[in-house]
Design a protein that fits this description.
Elements lengths: L4 E2 L6 E5 L4 E3 L6 E2 L1 H7 L8 E2 L7 E9 L5 E4 L16 E10 L3 E2 L6 H14 L10 H5 L2 E30 L2 E25 L6 H7 L8 E2 L9 E3 L5 H22 L6 E30 L2 E8 L5 E3 L5 H26 L1
Parallel strand pairs: 5-14, 9-14, 10-13
Antiparallel strand pairs: 1-2, 2-3, 3-4, 6-7, 6-8, 7-13, 9-12, 10-11, 10-14, 14-15, 15-16
The protein binds zinc ion (2 copies).
């Protein structure tokens, strides 16, 4: 569950700042401890008006359930899954998944499997520390094309903001330096429409990988048809549109707050004294986005290499083989070690 807290100083969305160990407002600098925030309970969630109509069209589909990580993979009856796209396990069991919610929209794959393989291969060749496993064609062929479930939200939003601002002028009168300060009460009222704000509805797909794969171009958004899944897998969504809405709302509130704040300019100082944001959710559209991916285990960890199936953008980290790293940095370490020894000698 994503909660958006509200700054007690200026009303902006406020975030936990790990370096301070408390919540810090980036607009007015207010610090609030976690317990203080919890007690004041200033959140945005309850203020959102909801105009969305739930799409509850259900379909029965062929699918696979991974016995290893629990992923539920959906596909058409002509496509088979031999390994799980998320953990690489071959313990996938075929079944009939009944009553799945029908996706409403889809961005179809435009990067073909051949093209994706070429991208993986050239990427691996470039890597200075790439282990030999990446150079085997069988490994590259094990990649799967998967549609990741997303919610795309539409909002109408508004922001009311009040601020105290000053303009300061200096001039000389004989021997005196005179400072003249004008005070202003500034009021701003803004409205904006937000369309297709994405939030990843998959539990298995790491959020950071998905964030890096963005952006998708939504002008290619098509009405969902089952044949789009032919040859590809899709993950069943783990979070419904209500669960993911706070994440999209946070982006919308941040954006409209920032844009409203940016209209207040030309002053010596600006101090936001209060604000409120209004949100009306207009739509939440269940959408599938295309990703080519390979998962593998390296030093006991599951790793993912992924390619945006629409744009070809690549995300992921290649493992660096230890021997090559040591050879590479050996000279530097030796130099640093010598200097540290010398310093130690002086201090001791
Ligand atoms: Zn603030
Ligand atoms: Zn799995």
């Amino acid at each position: 569950m994503v909660e958006t807290y509200k700054c007690k100083g200026c009303g902006a969305p406020i975030e936990f700042d790990g370096s301070h160990g408390e919540l810090v407002c980036e607009y007015c600098g207010t610090h609030m401890s976690v317990s203080e925030m919890e007690q004041s309970g200033e959140k945005y969630d309850s203020q959102v008006e909801d105009d969305t109509v739930e799409n509850d069209e259900k379909i029965d589909v062929d699918g696979y359930k991974c016995q290893s990580c629990g992923a539920e993979l959906i596909t058409d009856d002509k496509t088979t899954a031999t390994v799980c796209s998320f953990c690489g396990s071959s313990a996938v069991i075929k079944g009939r998944l009944t009553g799945q919610t029908m996706p409403a929209k889809i961005v179809p794959f435009t990067v073909t499997k051949d093209k994706a393989q070429d991208i993986f291969k050239s990427w691996c060749k470039k890597g200075v520390f790439t282990p030999s496993m990446f150079k085997k064609s069988s490994f590259v062929e094990s990649m799967s094309g998967i549609y990741v479930p997303f919610w795309l939200y539409d909002y109408d939003a508004g922001c009311h903001m009040e601020a105290h601002a000053t303009k300061v002028r200096h001039h000389r009168e004989g021997d005196y330096e005179v400072t003249h300060t004008d005070h202003f009460r500034v009021v701003r009222e803004g409205d904006a429409e937000f369309r297709l704000i994405p939030a990843d509805a998959s539990e298995k797909m790491p959020d950071d990988v998905m964030d890096l794969l963005e952006p998708y171009n939504y002008t290619d958004l098509k009405d969902f048809q089952m044949p789009y899944l032919s040859g590809f897998l899709s993950e069943k969504y783990s979070y419904d549109s209500k669960q993911m809405a706070p994440r999209a709302e946070r982006r919308v509130r941040d954006y409209i707050f920032r844009e409203t704040r940016n209209t207040i300019g030309g002053y010596s100082s600006v101090n936001i004294t209060g604000s409120s944001t209004r949100l009306r959710k207009k739509a939440a559209v269940y959408t599938l986005l295309p990703v080519w991916m390979i998962t593998y285990r390296y030093k006991g960890e599951n790793k993912i290499l992924a390619i945006n199936g629409q744009t070809g953008k690549q995300v992921g980290t290649l493992p660096r083989s230890k021997e090559k790293i040591l050879a590479w940095f050996g000279g530097i370490f030796a130099g640093v070690f010598a200097i540290l020894m010398m310093l130690g000698g002086f201090v001791g």
